Structure formats: structure tokens, C-alpha cells
Protein 1
Amino acid sequence: MTLFALHGQDQSQTLASTLRRPLRSWRRTVACFLIAITVATGAFLAQTPQFTARTDVVVIAVTGSTNADTQSDVSIDSAVQILYSDAVLGETARLLDYPGRSSGLLDDLSIDPLINSRLLQLKVSNPDARLAYRAVTMLTERFLSARLQRLTEQNEVSRKELEETELSLQSQLASIGSSGLEGLQRRELAQQLGVELAEAQAAISAIDNLPPSAGFVSRQAVMPTEANRRGRAIFLASALGLALVASSIVAPRHLRKRKQVQQLIEREKVDLHG
């Protein structure tokens, strides 16, 4: 009955009393914090320092064609997809013989699009500063080349489609005279076909005179000179959280046991005198 009563008292503790537990034994609380911070610091320092090379690329939003398929390529998402493609990331990893090849370079690469801008920040982190610099530089060059090639191919397809449309419209205009339509209908149809023909010719002219632009480098990569370790804030926050939990569990243990023993002794004395 006595043990059951004591267990019932533990179950009835409030949240406030639980949060005050570490204060019951500040020595154990401080020890918990010191141990947790020491372990976290050791784990943090055990990481291999990383050199980070960075470059910024501006993705051009306006291309040389007004074709909808080409315009859809100007999104930041499509640019990131090109960066992650085998023609860019995979080929860069193979040419540099990057540790882990494509998967290793993917783990070391971070792409940060800036909100409300056409800017992409490319960062490669590696224990080898020269390798990080070469990787981010080659990624940028291959990305711009691959995107320009993609836009050029799309323009070529668009131009071919527009030329076919132009020939079809010219053929329809030439056959209006023998169509058997009345004068007013022929004039209206000729006017409509003429407008469509002018639009097709303007689009062809835009492709010829305004070639697509993939983008440009706004910040050149430089050789990194300082190595850093990742996750400093994460390690510290984890250590503090673990220390708080451990101190809530461990700190009051000896006090609770001593209090229980004292209660049992007092109850035994009462029973003996009774």
C-alpha cells in the first residue's frame, strides 16, 4: 500500500513540477549540460572541415522566341532540372573523377534560388579546396552551355513549325480567288489570313534576330581559403535539448529516493509506536 501510494504521488505531478525537477539538484543538472555539450562539441569537431566554393548565375527570363514552349523554359525550376541532369552534374563528376561520382557531387552541391529574383547561388563543399572550386566552375559552364543548346534546339523546332504555318497561309491566300466565296467573305478571310501570316513572319524574324540567351555569371567563383564545419547551430541545439531532458530525469532521482526512504522510515516509526 505504501509503495502504491508513493507511485500515485509520482503520477499526480504537474507539468510545472516536472519542469522544476532540474532545480532540485543543480550539480547534476550542470553535469548533464557539461556532458551533453562536451559530446556534441566532440562530434562537431570530428567532422572533416569543408571548403566551400560559390558562384552566382543569373538565368535570363526573356528568350529570342515568343513560342510558348520556349517561354516555359525560363522558369527557375527548369534551370535547376538542367543543373541536376546527367549532361551537367553527371558529366562534371565524370570529368573531375569526383569522389562518389554523381551521387558524391550531388551531396556536396547546394542550389539556392533567391526569392523574387532570377539568381541561383551554386555552392560546392569539399575537403579539397581546389576540387570544390573546379567543380562549381565547371558546373556553371556546363549549365550555361546545356541551357543555351536546349533553347537553340527549341527555337529551331519553333522556326520549322512557323515556316510550315507560313507556307500554309500563303497557299490559302492564293486559293481564295478560286474558292467560290462571295466578295465580302473573300475579303474578310483574306484579312484574317493576312494577320496570321504577319504574326508567323514576325515570330520567324524574332528567332533570327534575337537569339536566345541562357544567362550569365554575376559572381565568379574564387578559390576558398577557409574551411568550416557544417551544422554548428544544430549540434548546439541538440546538446541543449538532450541536456535538458537528461537533467529532468536524472537530477531529482537521488532526492526522490531519499524522500521516499524518509517517508517509509517515518511510517515504520508510526507503526511501531502505534
Protein 2
Amino acid sequence: MRVTLLSPTDARQLARLIRAGTKRTLKAARTLREICEGYRIDLPGLRVEQGRITLGPIRIDDAARLARLLDAVPQATEQPSTTADAATVKALLAHAFPQATGGGALSVSVREETPNLLDLGSVDARTARRLIRALQF
């Protein structure tokens, strides 16, 4: 691939397109962070990378709370936050996430070196907006 000089007009148009595309993703990430904070779910690694929203590390109890909010387990059951192991919460999230987002996928992995944390993968802005809607209702 060869990079050539752009005319000022083309450069402004390209910058405008990049800004417009990034703006929606950044807004979705900010809204998702605010909603999760409202539910006391800590996602310290939430960030936008290469046009996708990376959710990052999450404590087991926060992941269990997220799974419950996505209807992974009935709200009336015992809270799995302290007794659940990482594999159980991973399975709950892996099952609930696509149902709550209308088919969106989220990779969830167990951290071997820190068993009280899971790693959540990234989602595109469209899936993030569907997750936001699922968490709002």
C-alpha cells in the first residue's frame, strides 16, 4: 500500500469521516460506563481500541451482577457473587450476553493467575448500543 499526499479538501473530509465514526463509538463507551457505574459494576479497563469497545477485566462479583442484569439467572435466586466460581460466571455471561443483545458475541476468559477476575473481550458500537438498551430496561 502506498500513501500519497492528500489535498486539503480530501484531508478535511477524511478527518470528518473519522471523527463521525469515532464519535458514536466513544459515546456508546461513555454511556456503557455510566450505566455500569449506576449498577456498581466496575469496568476499569473499558476503552475504545481500533473502533471497538474493549470491556477488559472485571471482578467475579461484578460479572455475576452483570449476568443477573442480563437475565442469566432469575433475580430471586441466591446471589452468586461470593460463592460462584469464575467458570460458572463465565458460562452465565456467555449464555446471557447474546440473548440480551440479539446475537452479539462477547468473549469471556478466566484469568488463571488471578482467579477473582475475568477478562471480557471487545464489542462493536452496534452491539454496545444493544447492550446499553438491555441494561436500561
Protein 3
Amino acid sequence: MSSESARRKSSPNVAGQAKKPTGRTRRKENQEFAADMKLRTLRPEELLHPAQLLARFTERASELIAQLPQDARPTPATVNAALRQGVLEAFRTRDEHIARLVETDVLASTPEQGAKAIRRAVRASLIDMGVRVVEEVDEQELFVVVEGEGEGFELLRPAYVDQATDKLLLAGQLRRIPAPRILAERDGTSAADVRGDDAK
């Protein structure tokens, strides 16, 4: 057997089979991702600080208050106290949001964690932050129908609603399906099973 024949026989790739990414390809992808992250990183001078933000708000508030009649103007102390409280609450909310994202990133970076664990962590974070995840197709005003035919509906993507304001953050997606399929799902197959949420 010639060396060329032996090489072909031992080669794992066959016609029509996709080649697995090589180490060089992975390194290149990692380098491109790292470069993109550096471009996205905020510089210290671009970050907002509570004192700077409060000073800007106070300056703008003073301009607006000066346009009011003298007897309708609030005292400077009242304005400063309200602005300070608002700025502190905004930064506290930002800190909580960042902490959640950090927890999720740590979980996603842990090799032994599967996709299911990461999805659950993200869902728990959303609910803790006051986001209602709607997976019941009964609330059809929160969904758009994207495809299919029939009288029934199958969930493709949940809807996300801000519980504090009842604002729709992201509309869900439904697929029309024949009614018998809906009955079969009610008998033993959930929407999560159809989407494969239990698979890692």
C-alpha cells in the first residue's frame, strides 16, 4: 500500500462531512473576540460618577427652577436632597444589575455547567429583577404569530414583561398548529419539552 493510500485511509474526514475547527481557527476566533471586547470596554473618563452626575443634574435643575415664578420655586435644599436620592438609587440599581451579570458570566464560564443550568440562572435573575416571563399562550396580546396554520398555537419564544410598569419588553412568538397537536401536548408534552429546554 502506498503512503498516499495509507494517508487517505487514515484520514477522519469523508466527502460531505464538515471539518472540525482546528486549534489555529479557535485561537483566531478567541483573538478576534478579545479584540472586540477591548473596543467595547468603557474608559475611566467615560464612566459616570455619582458626584459628577449630581452636579450636572443640579445645574440643569437650577436653570429650570429659575424660569418658575418666585413663589413657586422650591428651596435649593429640597432640590438637592431629591436629586441626591435619585442619583443614589440609580447607581444602586446599576450595581445590582452588574452583580447579576457577573454571576451569570461566572456560571457560563464554568466548564462543568451545562446550557440548562445557565438558562435557569438567567431566568431566576430576570424574575428577581421584576421581569415576568410569559409562556402561556392565553395572553395572546403579548405574542405575535410568525408562521404555521391551524387553530392552535405552539410557543416558540416567551414574552417578557416589566412587572413594575406592565410594559412589554419583548413580544413572544407563536406558531399556528392543528388543534389535535395541542391536545396531545396537554396530555403529556409541555412547551418546554417541544423546545428541548431539558437538553444540555
